[in-house]
Amino acid sequence: MSMRCTSYAVFSAAVCLLPGGPAASSAQGAGPVAGYPSRPIRVVVPFTPGGQPDIVARLIGPKLTESLGQQVVVDNRPGAGGVVGGRIVAGSTPDGYTLLSVSAAHAIAPATRANPGYHPVKDFAGVSMTANAAYYLVVPNSLEIRTVKDLIALAKAKPGQLNFTSAGTGSATHFGAELFKFTAGVDMVHVPHRGIPEALTDTVAGRAHFFMAPFGSSIGLIRDGRLRALAVSTVQRSRVTPDIPTIAESGLPGFRYDSWAAWYAPAKTPRAIINQLNHEIARVLKLPDTEQRLHAIGIEPVSSTPQQLDKFTAEQVAAAAELARKAGIKPE
Q1: CB neighbours of 281 closer than 8 A, spacing ≥ 6?
Q2: How far apart are CA 118 and CA 325, in angstroms?
Q3: Could you state, in order of their start, the residue ranges of all structural domains in the chain?
Q4: Do domains 4-133+258-327 and 134-250 have the same CATH topology?
Q5: What confidence tens digit (pLDDT) does each residue in 49-90 have?
Q6: Burial 47-70 (b: 16+ CB within 10 A, else e)
């Protein structure tokens, strides 16, 4: 399979990835490591069950258990926007037995936390990208608008009077909305919540004027007609909702904000172990049943080499810091 270069941008970060295919460099030094694994592998998900990093980890885990001969256990450790789980993995022994399945929150942490207790680049080694999906720009049915251009026009007509919600200050849903606000050149008020369910409830009730909602959490409300989806945040329309346009084609050319997930190991984990895990993850993501199950819930399986993920992470950290600066988001 040939490689394609895809932009997974907060602003302009890019990384060459293979969607669901084997990572380009995994063949080199990717064979089984003698004696590894000899006990269960723990995959820490720093969020509550049900989010993209959790769904993908629980899909990959059993298949890795089969091929590696040791149980791969998903361990949800939510708290502080992913920081609690990140600290657990960053501080663990770098032996390949404690891994992290995380979202864009991993790269955002330095821009929102004064002292997260780790650095997403220096304290981790990329294993592989695992997934990518769209956010849906949703509005309440009570808001009489039908398009992204309508939302922008209303916000410009009422500067500072409309609001948007998020799953919390510094969350990926917050940063996605800030990017929209910055790109559209509108003045809107941020009303953060403790999580996605609360943000969705506020939007359905009409107390929030828009929310950059993850697909899995919002698609039921969209299909039931309780929320109106104006557009998706990815560069292409979702195969699950092909009738919903992208934000880029709806008046903001070049806009892109993806919901991505990836696996990391603690820094200094032996390269041979990382390569073995990378090879196995890429294989699992390419399996037809894996692709089918992820596509059904709006997720694209995407693998990368460890080196590509490390480069991508560094670019995302820099882009998040720049967006935080422009949006006036201060580390807490």
Answers
A1: 60, 64, 127, 128, 130, 263, 303
A2: 20
A3: 4-133+258-327, 134-250
A4: yes
A5: 888 899 999 999 999 999 999 999 999 999 888 899 999 999
A6: beeebbbbbbbbbbbebbbeebee
Distance CA 25, CA 306 (A): 8
- The rounded distance, in Å, linking the Cα atoms of 66 and 283 is 12
The closest of 93, 77, 91, 89 to 126, measured between CA atoms, is 89
Helices of type H across the chain: 52-68, 83-90, 105-112, 148-157, 172-184, 196-204, 215-223, 271-286, 288-296, 306-327
Band of residue 166 on the pLDDT scale cut at 50, 70, 90: very high
What phi and psi values does residue 160 have, to the nearest 5 degrees? 75, 5
Q: Note the CATH number of domain 134-250.
A: 3.40.190.10
Q: In the chain, what is the greatest distance between 2 CA atoms, to the nearest angstrom?
A: 65
Give the orientation angle of helix 288-296 with respect to helix 271-286, to 10 degrees.
Answer: 70
CATH of 4-133+258-327, picked from 3.30.565.10, 3.30.70.260, 3.40.50.2300, 3.40.190.150, is 3.40.190.150
Q: What pLDDT, in 10s, does the model give residues 169-196?
A: 888 899 999 999 999 999 999 999 878 8
Q: Please give, one letter per residue, the 3-state secondary structure of 205-242.
A: CCCCCEEEEEHHHHHHHHHCCCEEEEEECCCCCCCCCC
Three-state SS string across 98-114, please? EEEEEECHHHHHHHHCC
